[in-house]
Amino acid sequence: VVYDANKLYKLVKKKKGLQNWLVYNQNKYERNPEKRPMRK
Fold first, then answer.
1. Whose CA is closest to 36, among 23, 27, 20?
2. Buried (b) or exposed (e) across 6-24, using 16+ Cβ within 10 A?
3. Sign, Cα dihedral of 32, 27, 24, 15
4. What is the pTM of this model?
5. Counting runs of H as helices and runs of E as strands, what totals does the chain give?
6. Which domain of life is it from (predicted)?
7. Residues 25, 18: Cα–Cα separation, whole Å
8. How much is the pLDDT for 21?
9. What is the pLDDT of residues 7-28, one digit of tens each?
10. What was the pLDDT predicted at 3?
């Protein structure tokens, strides 16, 4: 049970980290739209 709990905790932690990274990038680009990397 503890092993599964640790596994689940790591998964949630990773997911939260990714979400924070996404929100951070979105806010950064909203404040400075000209800094966004352009793709052709």
1. 27
2. eeeeeeeeeeeeeeeeeee
3. negative
4. 0.41
5. 1, 0
6. Eukaryota
7. 11
8. 85
9. 888 888 888 888 888 888 788 7
10. 78
